[in-house]
Design a protein that fits this description.
Order of helices and strands: HHHHEEHHHHHHHHHHHH
Number of helices: 16
Shape: globular
Largest sheet: 2 strands, antiparallel
Number of strands: 2
Strand order of the largest sheet: 1-2
Distance between the termini: 20 Å
Structural class: mainly alpha
Helix content: over 70%
Length: about 350
């Protein structure tokens, strides 16, 4: 894959994401309307549909990129199914994903998401937590009640994925309290925290296409490998991303002293720059410290390692995809989405 985010692959992915939003958002809105009063308000605000006062939101239709529901529908199509039959599964995945975002913002004490104040800063921690919990329950119920023959297996798979994802998030939090974290531990955490849900999204699409267990497993593995590449790029953006595009302060992950993948690669590099980064991570970060830390990560090789490893993981993802779809021309949607998320700059 050689096109860039702004090239042919990027345009194809953007069109696919837009079609997914147009298809899945009405289902999402119908589902969220089932939530009781205040939880519905929090969810509608979080999705960008409404302002805090309940008036229509300024963002237009939806707030997220819809990558995970797009993977569900693209996977179904790649294996000969009909994407529109997997709309409920796609909506359930997006609800589950946004449950994690509501909780992540509280855990990380993030004050901005998608260019707006995070839900917990507007409605308070209890309301944001409970809205997230209700959205997850709604996702599993919505999927379990789908009359499609694959719905029961899909619901079970999504539930197991959420447990794995929570374990990854717990490990991520635990790393912040430790002075030493191995790169292997960090990769396992990122696979659970990010790769699991992308893999599950692809697996659900395969289930809705009537695929066998080997094909479902291959699509899950594809999503996991692409998800790890996604996390590597996301970690790079967390250090060097443009605040105007990310909606977060420059070097936000460094300010929080997160043990992200580029940081752990730098800390375990055995270089003077890695030792300098460890000293900076031992105390609170000021503005100049954040700039020094970013420079230290780069000099210790963390930035190059993350970029190279992201490309390697995408190569592995394609190999897994070929196990289920030998003729990759049938999986153009999946490939364009994978390239989009791993070549983005924000």
């Amino acid at each position: 894959m050689t096109t860039t985010e702004t090239g042919t692959g990027g345009h194809e992915a953007a069109a696919l994401l837009e079609r997914t939003r147009e298809t899945v958002e009405p289902e999402l809105r119908r589902t969220v309307r089932e939530l009781p009063g205040q939880m519905r308000r929090v969810a509608a605000y979080h999705f960008g549909w409404e302002r805090a006062d309940g008036l229509p939101g300024p963002r237009g239709p939806g707030g997220g990129k819809a990558i995970r529901p797009a993977l569900v529908m693209a996977a179904a199509q790649a294996l000969g199914g009909k994407g529109e039959e997997a709309v409920r599964a796609a909506a359930a995945v997006e609800l589950a994903h946004n449950f994690t975002l509501l909780h992540d913002d509280i855990i990380d004490e993030d004050s901005r998401r998608r260019g707006r104040p995070t839900a917990w800063t507007v409605f308070g921690i209890p309301d944001a937590l409970l809205a997230g919990d209700a959205m997850l329950a709604l996702a599993l119920r919505w999927l379990a009640e789908d009359p499609h023959p694959a719905a029961a297996r899909a619901s079970s798979r999504l539930a197991a994925c959420i447990v794995e994802l929570c374990a990854g998030q717990q490990a991520d939090c635990a790393f912040e309290e430790r002075t030493e974290v191995s790169l292997e531990e960090c990769l396992a955490m990122a696979t659970a925290k990010t790769g699991a849900l992308l893999g599950c999204s692809c697996a659900l699409g395969a289930l809705y296409a009537g695929a066998g267990e080997e094909e479902v497993a291959a699509l899950d593995a594809f999503g996991r490998e692409a998800g790890l590449a996604f996390q590597l790029i996301d970690d790079l953006i967390g250090i060097w991303g443009d605040p105007e595009h990310t909606g977060k302060p420059a070097g936000a992950d460094l300010v929080a002293r997160k043990k992200s993948l580029p940081v752990v690669a730098a800390l375990t590099s055995g270089t003077p720059a890695g030792a300098e980064l460890a000293e900076l991570y031992a105390g609170p970060m000021t503005g100049p410290d954040v700039r020094r830390a970013a420079d230290a990560v780069e000099r210790a090789g963390g930035r190059d390692w993350a970029q190279i490893h992201a490309a390697d993981r995408m190569g592995r993802a394609v190999q897994q995809l070929q196990r289920a779809v030998p003729d990759l021309t049938a999986a153009g949607g999946l490939l364009s989405l994978a390239e989009f998320v791993t070549r983005r700059t924000r």
